[in-house]
Amino acid sequence: MPLLLLKLPADVHTKLAAFIHANDAARFCFAGKEAYKAFGLQAWRACLFSTHGGLRIGNEQNGLHAARRLATCGRGCLGFRALATDGGTFDGGDSRFWVDALFRPEPWRIYCSRQTSDPILCAATFLPEREAEDVDSRDRHWMCELIIETWSLEQLQVEPFSSKDYALGSVFLRVCHGLRDEDVVSLNLQNGQEAITKYRAKILEIVQRFNTTGAPAMRIGLDKTVFAQRGSVSVDPRIEALASNATAVATTLIVRRPIPVTCPGRLGIVFGCRRAPRVGDLDGRLRRVCADATPYIRALVDGPSSHILSRGPRVELGRRLGGVRPVLLAASCSPEQGVCYQLLGSNDDADVFPLAIFGFGGRNLDDAFTSLRARFEKPVTLKGVVVALLEAERRHDVVDPNVDMEFVGLEGYMYEAPPET
Predict the structure, then answer these.
(1) For a surface tag, which of 18, 125, 159, 282 has the fewest beta carbons within 10 Å of its beta carbon?
(2) For the purposes of burial, counting CB atoms within 10 Å of the CB of 135, is it exposed (0-12), middle (13-18) or buried (19 or more)?
(3) Per-residue DSSP letters for 162-214?
(4) Residue range 156-211, pLDDT digits in tens
(5) Do 309 and 330 contact (CB within 8 A), yes or no?
(6) How far apart are CA 402 and CA 269, in angstroms?
(7) What mean pLDDT is reported for the chain?
(8) In Å, how far from its chain's centre is CA 18?
(9) Whole-prediction pTM value?
């Protein structure tokens, strides 16, 4: 087969590349020198654009090298930082409940909006370089996992952590210090023996950090909550002034809502941003789109099970969101508990586009059910996100509820173009 492809003109290779997976393209290139030369940089650009959700590679000298970096780069939770929200905070300007908590995977921090019946828009920028400012960033995932397994979510989301700006290391030391090896082994963790080794080393590191260097126990740098009010929108001016050359490739959506609250978030839309989001993106046009789509999202989530799979409601929702095609994703829960749809076929030229919708069931849902996780059918390239929180579950008789949400995040990997020479 490679020999037959070699006889085709170079422009045909480029057109075919859009339908070839990167792994197959790499095998073709390894077939020989002629194949390597025939599948040039433009063909690789088309191939990686298709394979990695619309990724546009930058100043690359060799497409195969770019494909190798993408195949071997780390996977995990993508580092988004809150830029702005038009939802304010519960109880006025209380910084404990601002939207930066929504994009950080720390369950003791919760976003609590003001009381409103309107959709709430929350924007965040992809800034992976800023993750290194946190001394515990490399260990954040397993530290949070150990904290959650040691204490219940309900314990974490009340005093003393929910009312203070404690750093991750402070919470880890408070919750996990003193655990015996058998305690760590008994927890529901992957690689139990490795977890013990990491745990011992991390506890020692944090104790030395606080006792020897006098490191602050509170959040500092970009982890510290800072925002200013601009009309109806609250903005973190530090994030507004930053930009990144890196591009996120999202593969999985994660949504978590808190337990000990009156109005946990129930329905939402995630919009992707092909360039860094701006404060101006939280405008009336996007709010109108969200308000128009809400009844159809509610129908998909709350209707009988036949609605989840039937074509009619999905087509109508897709029309309201600009002609996209909602595709039901396999999620970490039953359809009665929650659903997630990826929205395919959005306009490739739009800066802000509908990416996914999510919803927690409204029929006899267990209050302890808090998490929804779904892998995308196709990866998506992003520079930022806008999350629209459309509706809250009313656990008490309130006229205008606020929206309480713990975390909306994306997992995946990132691409960073090599520096220009």
Answers:
(1) 159
(2) middle
(3) TTS-B-HHHHHHHHHTT--HHHHHHSS-SSHHHHHHHHHHHHHHHHHHHHHS-
(4) 877 666 667 888 888 888 888 888 877 777 766 666 677 788 888 888 888 888 87
(5) no
(6) 17
(7) 84
(8) 27
(9) 0.89
pLDDT in tens, 222-277: 888 999 999 999 999 999 999 888 999 999 999 998 877 778 899 999 999 999 99
Q: What is the pLDDT of residue 376?
A: 96
Burial group, residue 283, by CB count within 10 angstroms (0-12, 13-18, 19+):
middle
Torsion sign across C-alpha atoms 362, 368, 370, 371: negative
Quick check: 65 pLDDT over 90?
Answer: no
The DSSP code sequence of 316-367 is: HHHHHTTS-EEEEPPBSS-TTTEEEEEEES--TT-SEEEEEEEEE--SS--T
| Structure-block tokens of residue 343 | 């929205």
Tell me: cis bond preceding 304? Omega within 30 of 0 counts.
no
Q: What is the CATH number of domain 77-127+225-416?
A: 2.60.120.260
The CA–CA distances, whole Å, from 226 to 48, 126, 231 equal 38, 18, 16
> How is the beta sheet containing 384-392 ordered, strand by strand?
228-230, 233-235, 80-85, 120-126, 384-392, 265-273, 352-360, 338-344, 325-328
Q: Indicate whether 370 pLDDT > 70.
A: yes
Residues 6 or more apart whose CB falls under 8 angstroms from that of 160 comprise: none
Residues 6+ apart with CB under 8 A from 318: 324, 325, 326, 343, 345
Residues 195 and 183: beta-carbon distance below 8 Å: no
For residue 253, the surrounding DSSP H or E stretch is: strand 246-256
Integer Cα distance of 190 and 415 in angstroms: 28
Q: Provide the residue ranges of all domains of the chain, joining segments of one domain with +.
A: 2-72, 77-127+225-416, 132-158+168-217
Q: And the tokens for 49?
A: 């654009």
Q: How far apart are CA 25 and CA 35, in angstroms?
A: 10
